[in-house]
Design brief:
globular, five-stranded parallel sheet, alpha/beta, 279 residues, single chain
Length: 279
């Protein structure tokens, strides 16, 4: 969706997709908008509560079945396991994705890791295609005038033209560009707290082969999971940046993460977006 700054200011029902790497401040920015006026749609929340709900619960139950005490309670229907996923707590989604590597260090086999990656890909595509429906529901059912789509950090990896067409047709795409100083902070944070990630299959295969050769590991099952995530994250980061920018150049607009961090309220946000549209 392309429009002038004035058209955006005059737009009675503003519908925006925030696109950026995790850590760029998408959710923080969305949370600064008045909750009584803006419907906050979280792609990751939709993934966890709709499309991966059953696989996530199955994974938790599978782990619980390894413990005799919990196994007996589950088999006798004495306990119930459920998720407590919120927009601000998406840990069950991350724990389901898991990390590739040595099973003795809680790593996943390459086959299982790829299976979960595929499920996440399908779920993220579906969650983004749900945006038009939720735009309508947000206004029709709940009376929200404005809509913000807090898209997952891996949307640029989906290679789905349908997703991009859907988002561009129904929302104004705003890419939050990360300056070099913040980039270093995000990379360092990933090194000290390595988290499960989604990778395009081609990227995963290339980087896995490179890593195995570099570290002289015979098979993926020999890899320390955290070590691989720490090594691959800067490579993933660099590979995503041109993908984000290409989407913004064709379908939307770009704002700076530092400017986004300085937003305090709705007026600041509207002004920042209008500035981006006027360039």
């Amino acid at each position: 969706m392309k429009m002038s700054a004035q058209e955006f200011l005059d737009w009675p029902s503003k519908r925006i997709t925030l696109l950026a790497m995790s850590g760029a401040g998408k959710t923080t920015l969305a949370n600064k908008l008045p909750k009584a006026k803006w419907f906050h749609y979280s792609g990751d929340y939709r993934i966890g509560t709709k499309y991966l709900e059953e696989p996530i619960l199955d994974n938790i139950k599978r782990e619980a079945m390894h413990m005799p005490f919990l196994r007996n309670l589950l088999l006798s229907d004495s306990i119930h396991i459920s998720n407590k996923i919120t927009v601000d707590n998406l840990a069950p989604v991350s724990s389901f994705l898991g990390k590739l590597g040595n099973p003795e260090l809680n790593g996943l086999s390459l086959q299982e890791f790829k299976r979960r990656q595929k499920l996440h890909h399908q779920a993220e595509v579906a969650a983004m295609k749900d945006v038009p429906e939720f735009i309508d529901k947000a206004e029709d059912i709940y009376g929200y005038k404005h809509f913000i789509n807090d898209a997952g950090g891996s949307v640029c990896e989906l290679d789905s033209q349908d997703v991009l067409d859907t988002l561009a047709q129904h929302t104004l795409i705003i890419y939050i560009n990360i300056p070099s100083a913040l980039e270093k902070t995000i990379v360092e944070r990933a090194k000290t707290d390595p988290k499960p990630l989604y990778y395009r299959e081609a990227f995963l295969e290339d980087k896995l082969a490179e890593y195995l050769q570099l570290k002289s590991y015979a098979t993926p099952s020999s890899i320390p999971p955290d070590e691989f995530v720490t090594w691959v994250f800067p490579e993933l980061f660099k590979s995503r940046l041109p993908r984000y920018q290409a989407i913004a150049d064709r379908y939307g607009y770009t704002i700076d993460a530092n400017d986004a961090a300085n937003v305090n309220n709705e007026d600041d946000f509207i002004h920042l977006v209008a500035q981006a549209l006027s360039h």
